[in-house]
């Protein structure tokens, strides 16, 4: 999978999350919004590799994880996130919420409020996590 495919996947998963939220499907909306961030982080990783391909599993096993905070750290984006959080308080609050997303969220139940908060934190056009990552992927 290459950088462009991961970027497209991030955008599509965010759109899917919005559609699920509109349909009252809170669990899927929450999960897919977080998954959009995972894809965006992996697009950043792909940008750092030859020909913009995501590393093969053996070479890039530290990137084959679903923990957003660890993935951010392994991709050496932690300082970028910290700097952005200092510069933009709303982004910082959004990241604090989003970073706790886990792959296991697909097995959990989420309230409407939590799903709406996740979508807002990920997709806000000025202060959203995906908006920030777009500048670096």
Walk me through what this model shows.
By secondary structure, this protein is mainly alpha-helical. It has a single domain, classed as Four Helix Bundle (Hemerythrin (Met), subunit A). The chain contains 7 helices and no strands. Helix 1 runs antiparallel to helix 6.
Topology (SSEs and partners):
Layout: H1 3-22, H2 26-47, H3 68-74, H4 78-87, H5 89-98, H6 112-123, H7 129-134
Helix pairs in contact: 1-2, 1-6, 2-6, 4-5, 5-6
Question: Which labels suit this protein?
Answer:
globular, mainly alpha, 0% strand, Four Helix Bundle (Hemerythrin (Met), subunit A), 137 residues
Overall geometric form: globular
Taken as a percent bin, the fraction of beta residues is under 5%
Give the count of helical stretches: 7
* Residues in helix, %: 55-70%
CATH top level is Mainly Alpha
| CATH architecture level-2 label | Up-down Bundle
The CA-CA distance between the termini, in Å, is 14 Å
Instruction: Please tally the β strands and state the result.
Output: 0
CATH domain topology: Four Helix Bundle (Hemerythrin (Met), subunit A)
* Secondary structural class: mainly alpha
Let me know the largest β-sheet. Answer: none
Uncertain runs are none
Number of domains as seen in the coordinates: 1
On the 0 to 100 scale, the average pLDDT is 90
Assembly annotation: single chain
Radius of gyration: 14 Å
Topology as H/E string? HHHHHHH
